[in-house]
Amino acid sequence: MTALTQAAPDTVSDDSQPLLEVEGLTLSYDTRQGRVEVVHDVSFRVGRGEVVALVGESGSGKTSTAQAVIDLLADNGRRDSGRVVLAGSELTGLSDRAMRQVRGRRIGLVPQDPNNSLNPVKTIGDSLAEVLKIHGWGSKPAIAQRVLDLLEKVGIDRPELRVTQYPHELSGGMKQRVLIASAIALDPELIIADEPTSALDVTVQRRILDLIDALRAETGASVLLVTHDLGVAKERADRIVVMRGGQIVEQGPTAHVVEHAENPYTRTLLHEAAAVAWATPAPPPADLAERDVAIEVTDLVQDFDQGRGREPFRAVDHVSLAVAKGSTHAIVGESGSGKTSTVRAILGFQRPTSGVVRVAGHEVTSLRPRQLRDLRRSAQLVLQNPYSSLDPRQAVGDIVAEPLVNFRLGNRAERSRQVAAYLDKVALPATIAQRLPRELSGGQRQRVAIARALIIHPEVVVLDEPVSALDVTVQAQILRLLDDLQRDLGLTYLFISHDLGVVGQISDTVSVMQSGRVVEHGTTHEVFSDPQTDYTRELLAAIPGR
Amino acid sequence: MTPRALATRLGQSLLVIVLAFTGAFLMLQALPGDAVLIKFENPELGLTPAQIAEIREAYGADTPIWTSFWHTLSGFVVGDFGYSIQNGTAVRDLLAEVLPSTALLGVLGFAAAVVLACVVAFTAMGVRNPWLRNTLASLPSVLVSVPVFWLAMVLIQVFSFRLGLVRVIGGGPVESLVLPVLTLAVPISAPLAQILVRSIEDVQRQPFIAVVRAKGASRWWVLTRNIVRNALVPTLTIAGVLLGELVAGAIVTETVFGRAGLGRLTEQAVANQDVAVLQAVVVLTAVIFVVVNLAVDLVAPLVDPRLKKEVRAAA
What we know:
The complex is a heterodimer. Chain A is α/β, with parallel strands linked by helices. Chain A is built from 20 helices and 20 strands. Chain A has 3 domains: 2-106 and 190-274, P-loop containing nucleotide triphosphate hydrolases (Rossmann fold), CATH 3.40.50; 114-187, no CATH class; 286-386 and 462-541, P-loop containing nucleotide triphosphate hydrolases (Rossmann fold, 3-Layer(aba) Sandwich). Chain A has a 6-stranded mixed β-sheet with strand order 6-7-8-3-9-10, with helices on both faces. Chain A has a 6-stranded mixed β-sheet with strand order 16-17-18-13-19-20, sandwiched between helices. Chain A is globular and about 70 Å long. Mean pLDDT of chain A is 88; it is low at 1-15. Mean pLDDT of chain B is 83; it is low at 310-315. Chain B folds into 2 domains: 13-77, no CATH class; 91-308, MetI-like (MetI-like fold, Orthogonal Bundle), CATH 1.10.3720.10. Chain B is flat and about 85 Å long. By secondary structure, chain B is mainly alpha-helical. Chain B has 12 helices and no strands. Helices cover 76% and strands 0% of the residues of chain B. The chains are: A alpha/beta, B mainly alpha. Chain A binds chain B through residues 70, 72, 96-97, 100-105, 107-109, 111-113, 116-122, 130-131, 134-135, 166, 168, 179, 182, 304-307, 315, 350, and chain B through 206-208, 210-218, 221, 225-226, 229-230, 303-306, 309-310, 312, 314-315.
């Protein structure tokens, strides 16, 4: 590994001292199974004004490494060896009091999920002023003025109003801007951005990364960008450090890593990122137009009551779509575009305000509760988060068998045969049936959720963001699995996603939704090669690396 | 809270009080025997069954249940709680006499409980030594299971008899309050501290705490300026519920320490099956309970602004 590190040409010339040096960092966590080493002998540098991306999948140790730089490992974490040096002075071994002078003042942190990173009971103004107050910056009126200036700087409209608002009154993108403002409030030399966009909508992601870029250029700060997405790293970083299993497998200048990756793992990551970025969807099967229609939505409207005296909120606004049997239709849109409301109406979870929904021969909109149960036999759902969609106290075998039990299909022996068969179909070993969900990886859990959906032979499977909680390489595996299953079992997929990159790899046809309306639809091939609306173009441009 | 929501909430509160009144009334009526029998059927008085029947008639003991229900209810509505069967005094006067003393004990006891709970919870959270931290954090669970009467006796034994710090009998008004207040406070502080510790731990794990620490905040800053207010809402809710404990605790405390008060009055009324007094005590407790919980509901949105937002069922 050391050889690799040295093999890559170093952009930091010897005369200019790097801003951040991490040397031989080894970290471990205290767990029930004893001490577990999560980062082994990690060394890298961040030059002044440089953007260095720490790339890896979950569990690669990238976040722990970043946390160790500001000495904020979780309570059970420990630095076993190694040094962290900021602008020539060593941070490791500093007292807590001295370290507090570094945090916020010399190193700013932009966290992962803006939605839970602001104190919910503090106003935006108070949260932003906090870093200034902690470091004794200026008088009260000076702080108030600085807060307004900072909000303006990060592109938030009406700062005077925002300072009085609470986090729940702002969108995710705005909250992330506030957090960025807080990170740069004291002009730090280093900004650590820990997956700063993974919880945001794609088009917002791009704007946030642009903002970090612009602020970096303006202040001359260095950025340590922690990300699972090599596409993002390729686009934004001067240098890339690839981590896997707690070790650095490759590092060097971005162009070098991208073009001459030596490590097979880096090459896999690059390959997956390119597949997402440059998916040129194949033209759909020629007979698509002649096939039977499995899902047909006509003029769907879904209103939500907003209380007395207020106009109802129209979440779905005259949406129509049709999905041919055995094909995949994607609904693409950002949060609030109405795609989830559409799905709920299609599956009969919510009675629409008006419109007709036909799924696998059932007219969903007129079904009574008992008939809705029959609909569930032919239309199944796979949800986004495999961590919360599986009962944590049930063994995998019981989870997969549950639909059979609910519909009283087969006896015990027959069911366990079926479970084994379907676990095999989703490429899981039969022994996994005895395990609990928490013993499984994210990808394995999503396979379990897919097996559970398929075991009662549905015609239609609705996949609601089925891969967005997963690592890129796992995403690719799950997408391939879905593709194989569709061919073997003749399934019809309705695929919900905010990510056009993923959609390009799997769907035959697509509807792009914005504010409750379908703004564009057609075959995925057409939409990708010749987008008709600005919004679709923006979504396409937001695919990292494209 | 919108005026409409407030009106609904007030309506619910009223309903709770009426239900408490009805429940108490029915249960007290269902008890075998009654106060008249207890007082006058004593063989030593030598009353003939005819005389007892006469007395029963005078007290209205044999009026049909619904007549007496409406009679009592309409009395309560205008503030007439009837007369104690035991000594013929107006229940209103009896309550007025004992309330100040119990109110003082209750308020002080509750305040002491809050202080005690905060001290235990914050030291438990502030301490870095894991052993001490765990000990302090598990202290409330131990205290929850301590019976009040036993605690009172232990406190008297240790502080009065052994150490001679506080006199149980013949002390000044302040001195005589110390041990009763402590006795009352400990069992209430325990669940309060438990919830506080739990909430603080929950809040501590939230990502925004890591963000505040990354700003350079000390542990103390994080605790006092970020965690406390977030941990307050669940604690406040429990505090409202614990108020019921206060009344039960006052009964035992006042009995053990021989203090005059609502608790003592209740204890005697139970012993004598003094239905009129018990009815008034139950309703009074319900009113206090409802008012305090209403206040908690009104204060909670001030602590946590997210509660102001009305959540729509479907989105």
